[in-house]
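User: Design a sequence. Structure:
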């Protein structure tokens, strides 16, 4: 027998001595408004069918206000969400306690997974080379920019505002598409369909003039502390993706917001737990949950984030074990060297930057050119580094064991084929 819930948490109670399931309160569905489409195409530039279609109104979403909305989920999902939150906190504590630069390793892994959801894939070695400036274009460079967006999200977690959300997106696109940064969008966007008009789109977010007020409402929700953490980040993310406040980068910025909220709520204090790798594990469920959210059902998106948290921790722990094993192997390979030897220090930098060059080592360690080269020679001789781009003027060296571990992490995330991204 269902019962109503009077607070933000759906708590099981007893009837006749038996625990009963709490009812799920209704979450407001997205509504739609007809809007007139103004095209920039001339009659002869599109097909006759498209021209006729563009003369008709299109249905743009109107997002409901959620800032003060009661959040109710069934008792089992609530318990699962609380367990997922604990798992994330424990993993964060474990990662934070290590002497290895696991923060950088996980930040790069989360960035790569979030980018892969948008069909942007690259090897760990290519990403590391892009960080050195050796790859200015392509997916690797885009993933590096996503690292900056995630870093901004974590740094600005305590200051959630329109300005900080805009700053997160700017960190992502300022180099590749600066004209799309600096403010919320002032044009209509849509998901799916074609580039001619929104009439055949899978989903049409709110018109541009509704975005500022919708984001103001979302930020009010994001600042709350009375919603279970996993439900909080899941709903905030789904609402962000529904508003789609930017011309580009909404998916990656919305997942950066997840990291910001986890940090803001104190669930993570040390690292960016790779939640996107968990989402990547079942993109069908992720996109279906976003659709269900827009229809007024919050439980699928909360469930997706519960499952993603579990997958993130499982995969992250395997990566942690891989990196720790590599560190032990490096220590064994460097036996006989002083603890402050330059080669040991360079090997330590490789965990944070698995492709290195002399300039980077000078910046991080403050050592002279010749000292850096001698340290690199020692690491090459002992099998830790290999020439990344032999024969090039700007030489670099790779810690292949580390990039291989990162690639195994990406492979375990196991993106399923045949799924449309970008939602």
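Assistant: Done.
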């Amino acid at each position: 027998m269902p019962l109503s819930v009077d607070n933000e948490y759906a708590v099981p109670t007893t009837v006749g001595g038996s625990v009963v399931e709490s009812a799920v309160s209704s979450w407001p569905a997205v509504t739609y408004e007809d809007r007139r489409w103004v095209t920039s195409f001339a009659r002869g530039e599109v097909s006759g069918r498209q021209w006729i279609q563009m003369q008709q109104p299109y249905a743009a979403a109107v997002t409901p206000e959620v800032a003060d909305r009661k959040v109710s989920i069934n008792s089992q999902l609530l318990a699962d969400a609380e367990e997922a939150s604990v798992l994330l906190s424990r993993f964060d504590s474990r990662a934070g306690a290590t002497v290895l630069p696991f923060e950088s390793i996980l930040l790069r892994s989360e960035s790569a997974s979030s980018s892969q959801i948008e069909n942007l894939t690259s090897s760990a070695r290519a990403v590391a080379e892009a960080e050195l400036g050796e790859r200015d274009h392509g997916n690797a460079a885009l993933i590096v920019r996503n690292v900056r967006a995630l870093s901004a999200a974590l740094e600005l977690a305590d200051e959630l505002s329109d300005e900080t959300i805009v700053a997160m997106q700017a960190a992502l696109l300022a180099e590749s598409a600066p004209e799309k940064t600096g403010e919320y969008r002032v044009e209509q966007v849509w998901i799916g369909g074609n580039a001619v008009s929104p009439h055949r789109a899978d989903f049409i977010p709110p018109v541009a003039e509704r975005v500022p007020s919708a984001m103001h409402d979302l930020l009010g929700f994001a600042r709350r502390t009375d919603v279970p953490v996993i439900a909080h980040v899941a709903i905030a993310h789904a609402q962000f993706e529904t508003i789609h406040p930017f011309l580009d980068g909404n998916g990656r910025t919305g997942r950066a917001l997840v990291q910001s909220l986890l940090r803001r709520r104190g669930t993570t204090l040390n690292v960016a737990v790779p939640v996107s790798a968990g989402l990547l594990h079942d993109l069908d469920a992720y996109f279906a949950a976003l659709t269900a959210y827009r229809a007024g059902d919050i439980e699928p998106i909360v469930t997706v984030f519960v499952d993603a948290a579990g997958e993130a921790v499982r995969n992250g722990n395997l990566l942690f074990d891989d990196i720790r094993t590599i560190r032990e192997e490096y220590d064994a390979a460097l036996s006989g060297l002083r603890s402050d030897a330059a080669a040991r220090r360079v090997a330590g930098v490789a965990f944070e930057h698995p492709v290195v060059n002399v300039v980077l080592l000078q910046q991080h360690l403050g050592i002279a050119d010749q000292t850096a080269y001698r340290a690199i020679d020692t690491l090459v001789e002992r099998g830790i580094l290999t020439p990344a781009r032999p024969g090039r003027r700007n030489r670099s060296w790779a810690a292949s064991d580390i990039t291989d571990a990162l690639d195994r992490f990406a492979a375990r995330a196991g993106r399923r084929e045949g799924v449309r991204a970008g939602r």
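The chain has two domains: 31-318, 323-408. Confidence is low (pLDDT under 50) at residues 1-25, 416-423.
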